[in-house]
């Protein structure tokens, strides 16, 4: 098995599957008849410029975000359960409070779901400001977020 062929198969796998660890990648390669050590896989990932995506923790090409809507929603649910401590709404603004250092993760997770009610988010250290299209949309977003957190 040549290095070029192995790296081509790695790219094919990552384009079609969500692979979150080198161990999983090693097993996927093995099912295709390619035996590679963890060190070899690590070098291949580095040479190919592949990185772990923030949204789903899977390997991918830089700048590529292929998070499916289902994965984005599942990730948001994990972040909400782990990090959301309080909510408040004023007209079309929703303020979400988190422990220190968690707000950016929550804002990104909300952005990845792409709620139609949400115009944008601003994540600080422990606070996320969600700007909705209107007061009714802000209330609808907050209702959805509460359902996700259950």
Detailed description of the structure:
This protein has 150 residues and is α+β, with helices and mostly antiparallel strands. It folds into 2 domains: 3-60, Orthogonal Bundle (Arc Repressor Mutant, subunit A); 69-148, Gyrase A, domain 2, CATH 3.30.1360.40. Helices cover 50% and strands 17% of the residues. It has helices at residues 3-16, 22-31, 38-48, 69-83, 103-113, 135-148; strands at 51-52, 59-60, 86-90, 93-97, 118-123, 127-132. The strands form 2 sheets. A 4-stranded antiparallel β-sheet has the order 3-4-6-5. It has a two-stranded antiparallel ribbon with strand order 1-2. A hairpin with a 2-residue loop joins β3 (86-90) and β4 (93-97). 25% of the residues are buried. The model has no long low-confidence stretch (mean pLDDT 88).
Keywords for this entry:
Gyrase A, domain 2, single chain, alpha+beta, two-stranded antiparallel ribbon, Arc Repressor Mutant, subunit A, 150 residues, elongated
Describe the structure in brief.
The chain is α+β, with helices and mostly antiparallel strands and 150 residues long. The protein has helices at residues 3-16, 22-31, 38-48, 69-83, 103-113, 135-148; strands at 51-52, 59-60, 86-90, 93-97, 118-123, 127-132.
Write the layout of secondary structure elements.
Blueprint: H1 3-16, H2 22-31, H3 38-48, E1 51-52, E2 59-60, H4 69-83, E3 86-90, E4 93-97, H5 103-113, E5 118-123, E6 127-132, H6 135-148
Antiparallel strand pairs: 1-2, 3-4, 4-6, 5-6
Helix pairs in contact: 4-5
């Amino acid at each position: 098995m040549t290095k070029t062929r192995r790296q081509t198969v790695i790219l094919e796998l990552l384009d079609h599957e969500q692979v979150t660890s080198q161990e999983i990648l090693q097993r996927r390669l093995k099912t295709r008849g390619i035996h590679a050590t963890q060190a070899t896989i690590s070098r291949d990932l580095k040479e190919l410029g592949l990185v772990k995506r923030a949204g789903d923790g899977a390997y991918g090409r830089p700048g590529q975000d292929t998070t499916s809507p289902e994965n984005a929603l599942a990730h948001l649910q994990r972040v909400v359960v782990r990090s959301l401590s309080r909510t408040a709404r004023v007209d079309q603004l929703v303020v979400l409070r988190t422990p220190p250092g968690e707000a950016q993760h929550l804002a990104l997770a909300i952005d990845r779901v792409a709620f139609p009610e949400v115009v944008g988010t601003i994540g600080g250290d422990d606070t996320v400001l969600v700007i909705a299209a209107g007061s009714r949309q802000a209330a609808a977003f907050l209702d959805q977020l509460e359902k996700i957190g259950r």
